[in-house]
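Hello again, I could really use a second opinion on something today. Take your time with it, there's no hurry, and the full record follows here:

___
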Amino acid sequence: MNKIRVGSVNYLNTKPLEYGLKKPPIIERIKLIEDYPARLADMLIQNKIDVGLVPVAAIPALPEYHIVGDYCIGADGEVASVCLFSEVPVEKIEKIYLDYQSRTSVALLKWLIKKSWNHQPEFMEAKDEQYINEIKGATAGLVIGNRALVQRKISPYIYDLGLAWKKVTGLPFVFAAWVSMKKLPGDFISLFNNANALGLEHLDEIVAATPFDIYDLKEYYTNHISYVLDENKRKAMQKFLEFIK
């Protein structure tokens, strides 16, 4: 039997979802491939993976898509690891570097700047990690993932995109979801769902096995990242996709 290629994100926030994926019985049916979100979207389009935890903003580029299972990387308010960082208030920002690892966060930031913050800074496409060193003066930066948790200790102004979206819409937000471009077997989806759920039952174990003194991971996993893709999050996901058309 050919193994189903599963593309997952190599960030701290996916560890609870990956916990069960690395154990039987699902591990016997999958090949787990890790990369950053924007690259996973490309890998799905190029048929290098069968299902991936891809940025929601990448969905419109897919010729066909299926949401797989009931789990995601979401937030219902402050997400902590998707933020605009600056040394000055948002109204004084002149340039913003955009994280090259992200698509959803970039689209969300541009929407917030236009619809909520009523500001028109210059956007700069970051090419590599060095852009974070340019976050100074009137130049800000969008940073996601583990690097954002580190940046929280550095930048005096932090604009959390999950919280900003919640304030404007009253809805939670979905940054990434498990997506395939073809229908997957029902028995596999059931196993996959159970595997995703397993880590949420072992958060203390995951935290203990993940040394990270920059941020409280138990707080992060329980109060910031919201993993269940419920109806409210599905509604929010569709609204976001309509906004960025």
Summary: Residues 127 and 188 are 37 Å apart (CA to CA). The longest strand covers residues 66-75. The chain is about 35% helix and 25% strand. Residues 4-73+173-243 form a domain with the D-Maltodextrin-Binding Protein; domain 2 fold (CATH 3.40.190.10).
